[in-house]
Design goal:
The complex is a heterodimer of chains A (341) and B (451). By secondary structure, chain A is an all-alpha fold. Chain A has two domains: 61 residues, no CATH class; 231 residues, MetI-like (MetI-like fold), CATH 1.10.3720.10. In chain A, 74% of the residues lie in helices and 1% in strands. Chain A is globular. Chain B folds into three domains: 33 residues, no CATH class; 136 residues, Periplasmic binding protein-like II (D-Maltodextrin-Binding Protein, domain 2, 3-Layer(aba) Sandwich); 217 residues, Periplasmic binding protein-like II (D-Maltodextrin-Binding Protein, domain 2, 3-Layer(aba) Sandwich), CATH 3.40.190. Chain B is 41% helix and 13% strand. Chain B is built from 18 helices and twelve strands. In chain B, the strands form three sheets. In chain B, strands 6, 7, 8, 9, 10 and 11 form a six-stranded mixed beta sheet that branches. In chain B, a hairpin with a 2-residue loop joins strand 4 and strand 5. The longest helix of chain B is centred in the first third of the chain and has 23 residues. Classes of the chains: A mainly alpha (341), B alpha/beta (451).
């Protein structure tokens, strides 16, 4: 839950706040509220109470910031340093400059393959699962009997640990006695080999990704309930139908939520690991060699920590680039109702 | 020497324990007579029952060695390498550990593992099965944990019903590959009761397969060797799996699936239950698997037996043995070695009698006394063929050490070149020749010689 809540708030904050106000938000909310409207000079002279609040505020924040620095910033910096070395854990790391990056770009076909596999998967799983989650949220936002039960049912798969659901899908994909091939038999269609064939493994995993859209669906649902009713009524008065409501009210009003879900699911798709780890071991013939799985293999099976760190940085840069791209283009299609209040 | 000091320590310490226990009852049962109280950590993997047996061994060790306390840390197979790697990186390596071959040799070469020459002597080959001894760049990394050979398991009832003779248990009488295929065909039945040898056999509705083969390295490599092929050249600079001998054997292996229809496809194998279950439910008649599966077969109620692998030019089975190491960072090498030996001692660890492990030392194979400590002991759980199919087979037909214990960079060679090619071959999309040419080409930049 936390993982999607925090960025959502900062998304909204980023949407509302203009440049300078961001700094206040990052220090302390109460302080920001109190001092808003005052000049910068006034800020320097804090009353004793304000100062005490500042210390308390910083004290509370320091835990989070300290944890962030200790558990995220330091490892991130360390991994960059390690990516410039040849390190197999047993030996002290030796500095080799950008050789790992050169090797990645020029001498490692599996890096490109893993990049391709990951891109191929993301390109399909992101839109497919988003559309599916959106459709589900729309359905669950209607007035039907036993609504609570349906909402629970569709969220349920997301509660199942991903290992357990991977094993469940392994059985459903089973070419000999799995559910899917039994279904194809009933329909008189030819049997498929799903995750056991190089050409089918990614489409199969995309299909599987629709199963765990619960969190995304809930976010959409929350967004849908925020859409003001009077806008729908206005469409009714203007003689519009359900399609007009969707096209001209729901979707525009939902764009901030869509933006958030888009970013989160792009990042999640690029970091796909468990499916490869549990279900396919990257196979067949490296057909599901997701880049995170490749990083894992280099680091922990082949003890090439330096090279694995370089791969991780490559992935980081790809995710950064895509996130920036999405953000930069978002002002063309994201509509923040309430404007800059 | 070691034995003597051990006995001495036991006597002294046991006396201490008895006094302490007698006086105070609840006082921790550690003797006060120890010069120093030694704590060791030992990491291992294994199934629940294996874990149980190892923990029992640790307990009895701690009870019989009051001055040493071994703490066992069971790490599941899937996370083992990661865990040990991070322990090593943070300088908290265990004292004694199981280690995967992909890591062990590299770490030994870097001096992170203790050279056991002072303990095992210069020629441990005189007293151990030679393939269970691991050397790295002149250092003695140690021995395996226990040994195991690859075998053919079979359901006797299925054989009797089909009127096929049991697979021989004596390697000198091993089936040739052609005999093996013919018999497997007679055992393979479709839903109408036709065998794979009949003309109206339907390969799309097979009810019983003749033989299940593991898709992994230990499943196909023995036949490459049996046919005179090798994984790599002498100095380990080139993969030679595309040699005519290797390709012939691998093509024969692929033909079991797509030409003779006696073996399930890898897809089918990967999703079917384990061999013992399959065989009990008569879905397969034979299964190639390791010695260690005896414990599982013992849990079934079927009438099963073991035999030797079929052969091409000469009978061969790989001797598989997980490296067992002492980390160089240990502060107590003597005590660590004491435990190192204990955990592979058939008299102390139940896994030898229950059929999971075979011992390392020749005396347990060659002498009646030695055999009585595991295989022929009263509470041992081995089938009658074991004398031939395990003892004789291990001693005389295990050839040279597997290349996986000798080639540098073996993890990457397997992951990047060999496994993808083999999986393509077993999927039936390419011939053995094409697959192996590709493997050899992909492996070329990865080959770094032998240890």
């Amino acid at each position: 839950m936390k993982r999607w809540q925090t960025p959502l708030h900062s998304c909204r904050a980023a949407g509302r706040a203009s440049g300078t106000r961001m700094t206040q938000i990052s220090t302390s909310t109460t302080l920001a509220e109190r001092s808003s409207g005052r000049s910068a000079a006034a800020k320097r002279k804090l009353s004793r109470r304000q100062r005490r609040e500042l210390y308390w505020g910083l004290g509370f924040v320091s835990l989070a910031v300290g944890g962030f620095i200790l558990l995220k910033v330091i490892p991130i910096v360390a991994s960059f340093v390690i990516s410039l070395t040849d390190w197999n854990v047993a030996r002290a790391p030796s500095f080799i400059g950008l050789n790992n990056y050169m090797r990645m770009l020029t001498a490692d076909p599996l890096f490109w393959k893993s990049l391709w596999v990951t891109a191929y998967y993301s390109l399909f799983s992101v839109p497919v699962s988003m559309a599916f989650a959106f459709a589900l949220a729309m359905l669950l936002n209607t007035r039907i009997p036993a609504l609570g039960m349906f909402r629970t049912l569709f969220y349920l798969p997301s509660i199942i640990p991903v290992i357990a659901s991977s094993i469940l899908w392994l059985w459903m994909f089973n070419p000999d006695f799995g559910l899917f091939n039994a279904g194809l038999d009933l329909l008189g269609l030819p049997r498929q080999r799903f995750i056991y064939e190089e050409g089918q493994v990614i489409p199969s995993l995309v299909f599987m990704s629709m199963w765990s859209v619960g969190p995304m669906m809930i976010i959409f649902l929350a967004g849908l309930q925020d859409v003001p009713n009077q806008l729908y009524e206005a469409v009714d008065i203007d003689g519009g139908n359900a399609w007009h409501k969707l096209r001209h009210v729901t979707i525009p009003m939902m764009t901030p939520t869509i933006l958030f879900n888009l970013l989160i699911s792009i990042v999640a798709a690029l970091q796909t690991f468990v499916q490869a780890f549990i279900m396919t071991e990257g196979g067949p013939n490296n057909g599901s060699l997701f880049i995170v799985f490749y990083i894992y293999r280099k680091a922990f099976q082949e003890q090439q920590m330096g090279y694995a760190s370089a791969l991780a940085w490559a992935l980081f840069l790809v995710i950064c680039a895509l996130s920036i791209l999405v953000f930069k283009t978002s002002n063309r299609w994201v509509f923040y109702h309430g404007g800059d209040d | 020497m070691r034995e003597l000091s051990n006995i001495w320590r036991r006597v002294v310490c046991a006396g201490g324990v008895a006094v302490a226990a007698g006086l105070a009852g609840a006082v921790p049962a550690k003797a006060q007579d120890c010069v120093e109280q030694v704590d060791l950590t030992f990491t291992f993997w294994g199934s629940a029952s294996e874990k149980n047996d190892i923990e029992n061994a640790i307990r009895t060790f701690n009870e019989s060695h009051p001055c040493i306390t071994v703490t066992g840390q069971h790490i599941p197979n899937t996370g083992y390498v990661e865990k040990i790697t991070s322990m090593l990186a943070s300088n908290t390596a265990p004292d004694v550990a199981y280690l995967s071959q992909d890591q062990a040799f590299g770490w030994a070469a870097e001096g992170r593992l203790l050279d056991l020459t002072p303990y095992l002597g210069d020629t441990p080959e005189d007293t151990y099965l030679k393939n269970s001894i691991y050397r790295v760049e002149g250092r003695l990394m140690g021995t395996g944990l226990a040994t195991g050979v690859m075998l053919i398991y079979y359901n006797k009832d299925v054989f009797d019903a089909a009127g096929v003779e049991y697979p021989p248990a004596n390697a000198a009488e091993a089936w040739t590959w052609d005999e093996f295929v013919e018999n497997a065909k007679l055992l393979t039945k479709d839903r109408n009761g036709n065998t794979a040898a009949d003309s109206d056999f339907d390969p799309n509705s097979i009810d019983t397969f003749g033989v299940a083969m593991p898709a992994g390295f230990s499943g196909w490599y023995p036949y490459v060797v049996s046919n005179g092929g090798r994984m790599a050249n002498e100095d380990g600079t080139e993969l030679t799996l595309n040699s005519p001998e290797a390709v012939e054997a691998l093509q024969a292996y692929q033909d079991l699936i797509y030409k003779h229809h006696v073996t399930p496809t890898p897809t089918q194998t990967g999703t079917l239950p384990a061999a013992d279950i399959l065989m009990q439910s008569r879905k397969v008649a034979m299964s190639m698997d390791g010695h260690w599966r005896i414990t599982d077969f013992n849990d079934t109620r079927m009438n099963w037996g073991i035999g030797v692998l079929p052969m091409f030019d000469e009978p061969y089975t790989p001797l598989i043995s997980t490296p067992k190491v002492i980390f160089a960072s240990t502060e107590h090498p003597d005590e660590a070695f004491e435990f190192y030996q204990y955990v592979s001692n058939p008299e102390q660890v139940g896994l030898f009698k229950s059929g999971l492990w075979a011992p390392l030392e020749l005396e347990y194979f060659e002498t009646e006394d030695g055999l009585a400590k595991w295989l022929t002991s009263e509470d041992a759980e081995y089938p009658p063929e074991a004398m031939d199919a395990i003892v004789n087979y291990s001693l005389n037909y295990t050839g040279e050490q597997l290349p996986t214990y000798q080639l540098r960079n073996i993890g990457q060679i397997m992951n990047d070149a060999v496994i993808p090619a083999i999986s393509k071959m077993l999927d039936g999309t390419v011939s053995a020749q094409e697959a192996m040419d590709e493997a050899v080409a992909n492996a070329a930049p990865l080959m770094q010689g032998r240890w």
